Amino acid sequence: MFEQIPVEVGLVHEGERVRKNDMQVELGGPAEAEKCELVRVRKAETITDGEIAIIGPDISTMEEGKHYPLGILVEIAGPKVEPDLEGVIERRIHEYSNYIEGFMHLNQRYDIWIRLSKKSYKKGLNSFRFIGKVMLELFRNELPILEKVQITFITDPEKLKPLYREALEQYEARDARARGLLDGDVDVFYGCALCQSFAPTHICVITPQRYANCGAISWFDGRAAAGIDPKGPIYTIEKGECLDPEKGEYTGVNESAKKRSMGEISRVFLYSAFGYPHTSCGCFEGIAFYIPEADGFGIVLRGFRDLTVNGLAFSTMADSTAGGRQVDGFHGISIEYMRSSLFMHADGGYNRVVWMPAETKERLRDFIPASVCPAIATEKDVKTIPELKHFLTTHNHPVVQRWTSEEETPPKPGNSPPVFSAGDIPITTGGFRIILKNARITAEKVIILPVKAPEPGGGEHRGKKK
């Protein structure tokens, strides 16, 4: 099937990582503001089956080690092809791209991040035509309802702009369609295992009110995908008995998670970041991260390039969130889940959110309760934890009542202090590097002291606690 492709193509290459030092070029990713992939259903007479078009520089003319914008447009046709399938087929771009040796595809929609390895480039993978041919063959073989497929790669920044605008409009239209349906209105949920090649124990549970972490698959998309490919990576999950409506625990979800994770995950709370939180792979749109000093959550999306209020970057916290683990306080989420009334329902929802980037806050303004929205700080309001606590107090954030309640209520005998979980914690000492795997730290109090540069003739000088 792939005799004309200069590198291997197959399942064995799923999950391959291309590190920066090993990459020939980078397409999309955090350095590019506009990138996207979009599937559109067309009338059969308007597209040419098998055509692969390249608008802008091809891979062979790109400078080694540099990054470029990218838009991928897949146009499809067939008597059984409905617009409802666009999002489902779009997500297959991620799966099929990762079959290609040395071609790493991450994320989805407007967050795509692709790297081509130097090794595969030297073997001859130097054109988008090879990528297009692989996609064409896999679309035809895996999804026979597609009678015509046409693919366009756009790397010219100006020519990409119209596709980018169209893609954003289509994403929003799909998401809005699913907002009226409630988890209690349906008998089944859906699961997605598309990212298990990167995180073997991760299982995404898709409900009407909890989008896939990647933000690309709604409950309607899950239903459509399971319908056209019942044995595919998106499948039906029987809800079973609801064990806890606050946390969102269902017997059917637990059984599915245990089976699909080979016993590693046995319980899942759909609406909580504590206890048995939903696992994350790495394609999540954002992270909800616990801030113990404020007893609240921060939110950060993948595109935020600065440090968050706790001094960590998105990429740093992503390491503690991804990998298919259940890590208390680090929760991979989608933007559409943040628009749901069940968003971190068991943890207090937006009454527990204390910080997020200004752009994210504006984007979600219509979905954040008006009573709490002004009290959520952004990077424009605060830079440090002490500043955050002052802001929350002066703006009467609901979380402040939790501080007062905790101070007034003495600890009961046998009660444990709060637990902060931070995934893998590296410690360097005595020439050795020790890594605490899936560490959980118990602390009565967290004190942060600034470290100043060494003074002349002296050692390290620590700031005094105020």
Describe this structure in words.
It is a single chain. By secondary structure, this protein is α+β, with helices and mostly antiparallel strands. It folds into two domains: 11-177, 2-Layer Sandwich (Bifunctional carbon monoxide dehydrogenase/acetyl-coa synthase(codh/acs), Chain M, domain 3); 183-408, Carbon monoxide dehydrogenase alpha subunit. Chain D, domain 4 (Ribonuclease HI, Chain A). The protein has helices at residues 86-97, 118-123, 128-142, 157-177, 219-228, 251-260, 314-321, 358-363, 385-394, 399-408; strands spanning 23-28, 35-41, 52-55, 67-68, 70-77, 103-106, 113-117, 148-154, 188-192, 204-206, 234-238, 242-244, 249-250, 286-291, 296-301, 330-333, 353-355, 419-421, 425-429, 432-436, 440-442, 451-452, 461-462. The strands form eight sheets. It has a four-stranded mixed beta sheet with strand order 4-1-7-6. A hairpin with a 4-residue loop joins strand 14 and strand 15 (296-301). The longest helix is centred in the middle third of the chain and has 21 residues, at 157-177. The termini are far apart. Mean pLDDT is 87; it is low at 413-435 and 449-466.
